[in-house]
Design a protein that fits this description.
Helix content: over 70%
Structural class: mainly alpha
Number of domains: 1
CATH class: Mainly Alpha
Strand order of the largest sheet: 1-2
CATH superfamily: Amino acid/polyamine transporter I
CATH topology: Amino acid/polyamine transporter I
CATH architecture: Up-down Bundle
Distance between the termini: 54 Å
Number of strands: 2
């Protein structure tokens, strides 16, 4: 029930966000806020958004560092693993926003075939027990809870990256019922696959004790006539692609928020623009500190709190969108009348 409610709420949110920014082609949220609100409001609010995006990227980095430590590089120090990921991600944060979009296209083109392959192997595998899946489906009669709802709802918040990337959509885009249905089917397939397949392979009892259920599930799959027999390595490969993409997008958006507030492009040392590197130093120091200080239990605990914060934060922002749209409409009427 939490998944079903999250799908409904998420589709509504994606529709509202997309149609709002479709009304202001080429405009970012900081630009809109600056034009209709006072500095005392938009300055701390954008700073809060920057912190929100930074935490999202940091959670992905720390999680994947622990995952690599447990399943792939057990003898390597977590600091070295986190530093290795940072070397690639921080370089990507310095790219221009349009090149970030090109990177998304390239990585998704490479990752999607691997994702569909793993899903097909999972659904058609001989070891899946559909009785466990049927038992899990009966939990639709149980009341929903906030934490799984928030975790599923997070999947739909990618539309919030339009806060920055809308600058490249300079013309109105077509987002009608066909696009909404496509997003709906994609999210339904993703969420229900994420829920049912691990249960079908690992059983229903005590699966909540598994730290990484999908890693255990992928290690149950085999490619009989392939060069790589264990699907686990294929799964980790596209998991690495998606994790890199997630960190890159979140920290790039965070950097763009900070550029808007602190005018980082104007900070120069002997003619060299040094300001853009300042946020990267903080990203590296804070994320590596958390990699060393947190354990997996603390990570999952704090992540659940963060998801609950997002459930409150992003729906409330629809009221801000309504205010911006109303102010922009009134300003336009006043300009036409004058």
């Amino acid at each position: 029930m939490s998944i079903i409610l999250a799908i409904i709420a998420g589709i509504v949110l994606v529709t509202i966000y997309t149609r709002f920014f479709n009304s202001f082609p080429g405009k970012t949220l900081p630009e809109l806020l600056k034009s209709v609100t006072s500095k005392w409001f938009y300055w701390p609010f954008i700073l809060l958004l920057a912190l929100t995006w930074f935490v999202a990227g940091t959670i992905t980095l720390v999680t994947f560092t622990f995952l690599l430590k447990r399943f792939l590089t057990g003898d390597m120090n977590v600091f070295i693993i986190g530093l290795s990921i940072l070397c690639f991600v921080l370089f990507g944060c310095l790219m221009k926003s349009d090149r970030i979009l090109y990177t998304i296209e390239i990585i998704l083109t490479l990752a999607l075939p691997l994702i569909f392959f793993v899903f097909l192997k999972a659904y058609g595998g001989p070891n899946i027990n559909w009785d466990f899946v049927k038992l899990a489906a009966q939990y639709i009669y149980h009341p929903p809870s906030w934490t799984p709802f928030a975790a599923c709802f997070f999947l739909f918040l990618g539309s919030a990256n339009l806060f920055i990337f809308n600058r490249f959509f300079t013309t109105k885009q077509n987002f009608g019922w066909k696009q909404i249905l496509f997003v709906s089917f994609l999210m339904i397939g993703t969420l229900f696959t994420t829920y049912f397949i691990p249960i079908g392979y690992n059983g229903f009892e005590n699966i909540d004790e598994l730290v990484y259920p999908w890693i255990s599930t992928s290690d149950s799959l085999r490619m009989k006539y392939a060069i790589i027999e264990r699907v686990l390595f294929v799964f980790l490969l596209f998991y690495l692609m998606i994790a890199f993409l997630s960190i890159l997008i979140h920290w790039h958006v965070c950097t763009e928020f900070l550029k808007f507030l602190f005018k980082l492009n104007k900070i120069k040392v002997k003619g060299f623009s040094f300001g853009n590197f300042i946020p990267l130093i903080f990203y590296a120091v804070i994320s590596l500190y958390l990699v060393l200080k947190l354990d997996e239990y603390q990570l999952f605990k704090y992540t659940s709190f963060y998801y609950l914060y997002l459930v409150v934060m992003f729906p409330i922002m629809t009221l801000l969108f309504w205010y911006i749209k109303r102010r922009m409409k009134n300003d336009k009427v006043q300009q036409n009348s004058s």
